Amino acid sequence: MSHRHLLSALAAIALAAGASVPAAAQAAPAVSLTSEVKVVRQVTENGTTREVMEEPAKVLPGDRLLFATRYNNSGSQPATDFVVVNPLPAAVKLARVDGFDVSVDGGKTFGALAALKVARSDGTTRAAELGDVTHVRWRVASIAPGASGNVSYFAEVR
Amino acid sequence: MFKGAQLNKSVTMTAASLVAGVASLALAAPAMAAGVAAGSLIENTATATYTAAAGTQTIDSNTVTLKVDEILDVATVSQESGPVAASTTAALRFRVTNTGNGPESFVLTANPAVSGNAFDATVTGLAIDTNGNGVFDAGVDTALTNGATSAVLAADGPLDVLVLVTIPANAAPNATSRVELIATATTGTGPAGTLFAGAGVGLGDAVVGASTARATAQAVLTVDKAVVTLNKSATVADPFGGTRPVPNAVITYRIVADVTGTGSVSGLAVTDAIPTGTAFLPGSLTLEGTGLTDAADSDAGQGGASGIAVQLGTLAAGAQRTVTFQVRIN
Question: What is the ipTM of this complex?
Fold first, then answer.
């Protein structure tokens, strides 16, 4: 219960910070980002198992989470070259790649997971794995005025 | 943490700030064998950049924050590689590990009465093997009464527990007995998924994991002792070449000592009285077929009107000694 309050308090801080930042650049650009998180539960009914998204009242290691970010252009002009970067919280591991680029070097470089390498301590490299991913990135060429959309990734609590 | 995440504005970030940001994230939420520590916060913030008429814009999402709840799990294993041979007392080595993701204490209960036991040992107490040497050092290792609660173990924390037992005197040589150690989480146990609301780290929930928050392991004791059995028999030779116990008939007594079990016995002596109505036949005492003098002297035996005594000394399990002597019926 106490962390619900914390959550909303943090959200309020984030919104306040978000409101103050564009003051310098100002004017028309009015794209906003709204993040949410759900926990993915397996529900078996009448012998069939399906996944349901629930509010994360209880989170344990191994649980699968869906982090979703909604973008909305409430301005009067299109926003172009729209790039969303989401650093993964250290306590989670990317569960699967759903058509986005990833970084395994703290956001310095991005690419398809299969194309990325990770340095071993002895100087050699190995193919990057889901557990190595530090950031995910989505690109949207243009968001028309009034348009909105959603990007998301699945992660597992380490 | 929250500020650090906000720093990660993709395009403008320098390599140095990236490395610092990643390191601080990793420190904030250590992942262990049992998973992320209970009470850790999972905070997610997305950042976007885009181009608009006013130029390049950078915006952050709100930060969503989850707190990782506590999972209650425990593992108990015997650290004995095989049966523990003991004659009177033993310290059986176990290890209890907190396989949950938060600090937890455990009730430790040793049960010597396991179904199928040939005998049940007596649990005299438990001890925390503080110095990890596998034996109970009184005054060094922390003694606990059976059923006591351990100190709080950190997630992944192991605890070496000695179960101190005594073997009943009537336990047969080589008999085996199982002794089990049960560890249960003090927060609670139950089927996986059982919820203890508000009982976890930082007033989060505690949830029972796959172990049911209760774990049992068994160690096996075997009785390591030697046992002596004596078997006495008599044959009668009468003066007429028969076997009737008539006056002047000679009775040959044969006493066979068998040492069985494991180990050895020491100070073993065989004594026997001369039956009423008979008289010891001087010079008739033998050990393993070899004559012994009747006098109390350097050989192992002595005999006379009051009886016979043969000192067998120390004998290992498996040894057998035969003593004979004769009496004449009055």
Answer: 0.79
CATH code reported for the domain at B71-223? 2.60.40.10
Q: Tell if the CB–CB gap between A79 and B18 is shorter than 8 Å.
A: no
A29/B contact by beta carbon, under 8 A: yes
Give domain limits for chain A: 27-157
Name the CATH architecture for the domain at B226-329: Sandwich (2.60)
Q: Is B176 left (phi over 0), alpha (psi -120 to 50) or beta?
A: beta
- Mark which residues 54-83 of A lie under 8 Å from B by CB: 56, 58-62, 65, 67, 69, 71, 75, 77-83
In words, the CATH class of domain A27-157 is mainly beta
Mean pLDDT of chain B: 88
Give the 3-state DSSP-derived string for B280-297, with helices as H, strands as E and coil as C: ECCCCCEECCEECCCCCC
Please give the DSSP secondary-structure letter assigned to residue B202. Answer: G
Picking from A21, A67, A81, the nearest residue to B51 by CB comes out as A81
pLDDT tens sequence across B142-191: 999 999 999 999 999 999 999 999 999 999 988 999 999 999 999 999 99
Which residue ranges does chain B devote to CATH 2.60.40.10?
A: 71-223
Q: Do A77 and B42 touch (CB under 8 A)?
A: no
> Given a cut of 60, is residue B287 above it in pLDDT?
yes
**B77-114 tens-digit pLDDT:** 999 999 999 989 999 999 999 999 999 999 999 999 99
Mean pLDDT of chain A: 84
Residues across chain A: 158
Instruction: Return residue ranges of chain B for CATH 2.60.40.740.
Output: 226-329
Q: Which two tokens stand for residue B286?
A: 């033998």
- pLDDT of amino acid B282: 96
Name the amino acid, one letter, at B3: K
Q: How far is it, in rounded angstroms, from Cα B122 to Cα B113?
A: 9
A112 touches chain B (CB under 8 A): no
Q: How far apart are the first and last CA of chain A?
A: 23
Task: Give pLDDT, residue B164.
Answer: 97
Please give the Cα distance from A34 to B224 (Å, whole number).
72
Task: From residue B37, give the alpha-carbon distance in Å to each of A4, A130, B209.
Answer: 19, 21, 14
Give the closest-approach CA distance of B11 to chain A in angstroms. Answer: 9
